[in-house]
Amino acid sequence: MMAISQEKLIEASAQPFSRLSDRQTLVELQQVEKIYPGGTVAVQDANLHIKEGEFVSFVGPSGCGKSTIFRLIAGLSEPSGGSLQVMGGTPEAARKSSQLSFVFQDATLMPWCSVIDNVTLPLQLRGVPKKTQREEAHRVLELVGLQDYHKSLPRQLSGGMKMRVSIARSLIAHPGLLLMDEPFGALDEITRQTLQHELLAIWQKNPKMTVLFVTHNVFEAVFLSTRIAVMTPRPGKIAQQIDVPVPFPREEGFRTTSAFSEIVTRVNEALKH
Ligand SMILES: Nc1ncnc2c1ncn2[C@@H]1O[C@H](COP(=O)(O)OP(=O)(O)OP(=O)(O)O)[C@@H](O)[C@H]1O
């Protein structure tokens, strides 16, 4: 594997953000708080401004409120305090307009349906004509390299392939905001790294698409993100936000550079607070 030279990193260090300059704020959280019935303060005083086109990862120990923040941004749960705006309106409005989609750790496919029927589900629910459904399905299946598997059933696929189907389904309605909650957590390391590259390639092809990504894995967060929100528990807080000013495309060699280890160390330090 070839390492990216330090000079190349320094020279290009402003590039990931050229994609982001002059972009509108897509997600805005101001002093957001979530207290569950029973009194658990899952999220406290969360402030976050995410621009169109960013790739922001959320890292933190179990129970620090990562999924809760995602549920709030997706309009699946109401905040107890503070304000949230997604795409200029309420999170619920963004979800209902299909501009926002979700990928979970479990691929959540319908086992009795073929790959293509699983992928077209969001369009079936919206009554999109069948011909358009099929065209869009072939587009997204090609993006994830599964064009030859459209007739397969989920049980005929590996874990990595199921996750690709889930990603294809999330992309079919051209979402502006993709929320991914530990999507690669159940996969082996090699498959995980392959999917990281594939996800970055898809994101780079869609300069306006914003990805929010939950992971326990600091290495994964540094490899993928333009910015990392480090969360700490009891109560759940966004303790620090750390930029990853390294250009895209990020090659495999990025993982072995000193820039990579320095950012990993910064994130690990922030997690201790
Ligand atoms: N529906 C709920 N009702 C009551 N408490 C909840 C509910 N959902 C989450 N919690 C609590 O809120 C806190 C934050 O949970 P959350 O699932 O957001 O954390 P997380 O960082 O995503 O954890 P993990 O990494 O394990 O998925 C935890 O203490 C959890 O027990």
UniProtKB/TrEMBL annotation:
User: In what residue span(s) does the ABC transporter domain sit?
Assistant: 27-258
Annotated Gene Ontology MF terms? ATP binding
Taxonomy, superkingdom: Bacteria
Listed A to Z, the keywords are: ATP-binding, Nucleotide-binding, Transport
State if Transport is listed as a keyword: yes
The UniProt entry, under Pfam families, shows:
ABC_tran (PF00005)
Answer yes or no on keyword rRNA processing. Answer: no
- Write down the InterPro entries for this protein, in alphabetical order: AAA+_ATPase, ABC_transporter-like_ATP-bd, ABC_transporter-like_CS, ABC_transporter_ATP-bind, P-loop_NTPase
Q: What is this protein called?
A: NitT/TauT family transport system ATP-binding protein
Q: What is the lineage of its organism?
A: Bacteria, Bacillati, Bacillota, Bacilli, Bacillales
